[in-house]
C-alpha cells in the first residue's frame, strides 16, 4: 500500500512540480531549450524533449534504486513520475499537439478545455506573456468559454 500511495502522491505532486518548472525555469533561464516548443521547426523532435528525458531518467533511477534497496517509497515515486510522464505524452503530445496523428477531433469537454488553455499558452512565441503553465489542472474559465460557445451540452 505504501508504494501505491506514494505513486499517487508523486503523480499529483508532478503537476505542481511541472507547473513551477514550466513557469519559472522553462520560461526563465531554460527558455533557449523550451523555445523550440513554441517556435516549431521541421523535425519530429524538439530540443524541448530533453525535459522528458530528464524526468524519465529520474523516474527510472528511482525505480531501479528502490528495487535494489527494497525501498517502496522510491519505487512508488518512480512509478508516479512515469505515469505522469505517460499521461503528459498522451494528452500534450498526441491529443493537443498531434505529434502522432492517430485520433480525430477532441470531443470530451475536459480535453477541449485543456486544448483551449494550452492554445492560450502558445499565443505568445516569446519567453514572457504566456499563461496557463500546468497540464492537468484547467482553469474553470475554459469550461465556461465552452458553455458560451455552445460546445458543451
Structural class: mainly alpha
The helicity comes to 55-70%
Q: Strand percentage, roughly? A: under 5%
Number of domains: 1
Helices and strands, in order, run as: HHHHHH
Provide the residue-averaged pLDDT.
Answer: 90
Q: Describe the biggest sheet?
A: none
Q: Can you tell me the overall shape? A: globular
Regions with pLDDT < 50 over 5+ consecutive residues?
Answer: none
How many runs of DSSP E, i.e. beta strands? 0
Q: Number of helix segments?
A: 6
Task: Report the C-alpha radius of gyration, rounded.
Answer: 17 Å
Distance between the termini: 40 Å
Give a summary of the structure in a few sentences.
This protein is mainly α.
What does this structure look like?
- The chain is globular.
- It has one domain.
- It has 153 residues and is an all-alpha fold.
- It contains 6 helices and no strands.
- The longest helix has 25 residues.
Amino acid at each position: 500500500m505504501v508504494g501505491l500511495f506514494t505513486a499517487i502522491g508523486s503523480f499529483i505532486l508532478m503537476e505542481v512540480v511541472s507547473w513551477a518548472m514550466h513557469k519559472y525555469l522553462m520560461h526563465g533561464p531554460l527558455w533557449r531549450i523550451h523555445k523550440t516548443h513554441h517556435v516549431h521547426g521541421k523535425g519530429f523532435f524538439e530540443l524541448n524533449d530533453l525535459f522528458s528525458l530528464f524526468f524519465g531518467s529520474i523516474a527510472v533511477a528511482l525505480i531501479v534504486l528502490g528495487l535494489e534497496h527494497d525501498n517502496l517509497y522510491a519505487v512508488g515515486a518512480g512509478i508516479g513520475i512515469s505515469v505522469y510522464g505517460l499521461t503528459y505524452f498522451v494528452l500534450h503530445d498526441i491529443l493537443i499537439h498531434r505529434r502522432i496523428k492517430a485520433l480525430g477531433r477532441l470531443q470530451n469537454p475536459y480535453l477541449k478545455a485543456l486544448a483551449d488553455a494550452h492554445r492560450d499558452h502558445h499565443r505568445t512565441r516569446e519567453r514572457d506573456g504566456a499563461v496557463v503553465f500546468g497540464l492537468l489542472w484547467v482553469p474553470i474559465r475554459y469550461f465556461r468559454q465552452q458553455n458560451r460557445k455552445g460546445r458543451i451540452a
